[in-house]
Amino acid sequence: MMTDTCQPTDPATTPRSGRRILAIWCARLSVDRWRLSQGLEAGQRADAEPLALITETAHGLRIDAVNAAGSQAGAQPGMMLADARTLCPLIQTAASDPTGDLAFLEKLAVWAQRWGPWSALDRPDGLLVDITSAAHLFGGEEQLLADVEAAFARRKLAVRTAIAPTAGAAWALAHYGPPRTILASGEDAMRRLADLPVAALRLDADVLTVLRRLGLKRLGDLVGVASGAREPGETANEAAGRDALHRRFRNRKSPSANPLVRLDQLLGKVSEPLLPVVPHEAPLVQRRLLEPIRHRSLLDQVLADLAADMAHVLEGRGEGARRLELGLWRVDGEVIVRRLELAAAMREPEHITRLFADRLEDIDAGFGIETVRLRASWAEPLGMEQGDVEQAAERHGTSLAACIDRLTVRLGTEAVRRPVPHASYLPERAVRWRAPLEPLPVMQHALEFHERPLKLLDQAERIAVLYATPDGYPQRFRWRGEVREVVRVAGPERIAPEWWRQKSTARLRDYYRIEDARGRRYWIYRHGLAGDGRGGAPDWYLQGLYA
Fold first, then answer.
1. Rounded-to-integer distance, Cα 245 and Cα 259, Å
2. How many CB atoms lie within 10 A of CB 328?
3. Which position has the higher pLDDT, 113 or 228?
4. Each residue of 445-478: pLDDT tens digit?
């Protein structure tokens, strides 16, 4: 698994003379990845039809990416699907996968280190590779670009590439310059970049709108205004316009919101921190057996040896395993995998062996198992400790983490959870289920509900309510075939819908705490108000019971 959680290193943050950055733009990364997952070749009939990758939002389906045919038909990323269908009624759709795209891009970043010592992500669809003093290994920068495009073509990915002294200039040329552009170190950058649009500065959409309204459409226009030097024949109005540009963006700290900072980064006047992607190798131990084994006792012995080897590896790395994967390779080529997720980081061989014992009961060895591999796909830091109370309890079988691990093995991962509060006023969203020993999330604004029931139904059940007026208190209601008389009512507690998550037609709720003639107490709510213009008559639901 690749991560980019390391701190910026000196080579990635300190500009130096002769620095060379390779920018790789996967112009249709999401679409290419979807096409490869479907087994389609570029240019096939199925791939030539208009296609849009969509995601569901509070306002409807939105397009995240389109293929070449869809773009020619008028569909664009960011457009609502309903608008795109008016331009292209036959456009096909598929669900987008931004998480999968990011994981795929991380793998490409590690793979791209064949051209330079480090690489960085350029989200959402690009890479930056430092090729300083490495181009001669490929016969020069032109041959290096040719090798890059050929390598991506073999992976069936369409890319555009460029090389420049800074990451900003390389990005601009890869996205808006001619194919395979190379900007030499001593060359005047603005002479080559002046005709590019201001969008080549990687600015936010609202900043680009402001620049276009000011008449600054090209980088050359922005350089003339932002230089600060009054040219011969410049009028007082032009000088005032330059000063206004400096004042408008002077206090914006984010580079993507300040065109002046982005321009300085592009020209190399201001350093641009880049976060290299560092590959993380999961601890792995294995046994290649001289003779295939079929008996359970022999398999248990091999597992115990692997657990001891894994403990040594994790101890050397100062880590403990949270997720372990045991792979068994049979003689006939079939691979059997058993996974184990632990409640807390640990590396005790006996505990690992005991937990896997229950997962090996149904193993079919076939003609024999010839290779056994144990891999820690998830590990966390775990320092060396002197024997403490927890380890003593583990030896006696009373450790909390060990107890949770055994329950998880027997009952399943989803069966062992604990509820934790979540910052939401809606009852069904006010609690989240977490792993038993996972640290509680830090809530900036804790929500406390003193009068809500502890027992909530999995789903609110609809009830029939009799009331004097549409906005009055409930007097009688029917739930699960029984009519209940209401003798006491408290409320309402009004909860408005989450406008940032729900549609604009969502209705508010009025919650009541009620008690029937037999002393039983309920938590019910009216969904909507009469005449609110968001539906018909209000509906009533029962959501909780008081003890």
1. 10
2. 23
3. 113
4. 555 555 788 888 888 999 999 876 777 888 899 9
Neighbours of 329 (CB within 10 A): 18
DSSP conformation letters of 100-113: HHHHHHHHHHHHGG
Residue 299 CA: distances (Å) to CA of 302, 306, 376, 406, 512: 5, 11, 19, 20, 61
Residue type (1 letter), 327: G
pLDDT tens-digit series, residues 15-67: 444 889 999 999 899 999 998 888 877 655 556 788 999 998 888 899 999 98
User: Whose structure tokens read 């306002």?
Assistant: 59
Terminal Cα-to-Cα distance of the chain (whole angstroms) = 48
Distance CA 64, CA 53 (A): 6
- In 3-state terms the chain splits into helix, strand, coil percentages (rounded to 5) of 35, 30, 35
φ, ψ at 80 (rounded to 5°): -70, 145
Spatial separation of the C-alpha atoms in residues 338 and 537, rounded to whole Å: 54
Which residues lie below 8 Å from residue 111, measured CB to CB, with a gap of 6+? Answer: none
Which residues, 6 or more positions from 72, have their beta carbon under 8 angstroms from its beta carbon? 50
Distances (CA, A) of 228 to 206, 224, 238, 244: 24, 8, 11, 11
The helix (run of H) or strand (run of E) holding residue 543 is strand 539-545
Nearest to 76 by CA among 28, 37, 26, 122: 28
* Residue carrying the six token digits 């759709």: 93
Q: Where are the alpha helices (DSSP H) in 136-188?
A: 141-154, 167-176
Query: Is the bond leading into 492 cis (omega within 30 degrees of zero)?
Result: yes
Which residues are bridge partners to 346 per DSSP? 321
Contact 519, 541 (CB under 8 A): no
R_g of the chain computed on alpha carbons = 31
Structure tokens given for 7: 């701190």
43: left (phi over 0), alpha (psi -120 to 50) or beta: left
Residues in contact with 62: Cβ distance below 8 Å, sequence separation at least 6, in sequence order: 54, 55, 56, 78, 79, 80, 81
CA distances from 177 to 173, 200, 266 (A): 4, 9, 14
d(CA 487, CA 471): 18
Tokens 């900072």 locate to: 261
CA distance 216 to 218: 6
* pLDDT tens digits for range 509-522: 999 999 998 899 99
pLDDT digits (tens, 9 = 90+) for 180-215: 999 988 778 888 898 999 999 998 888 888 888 888
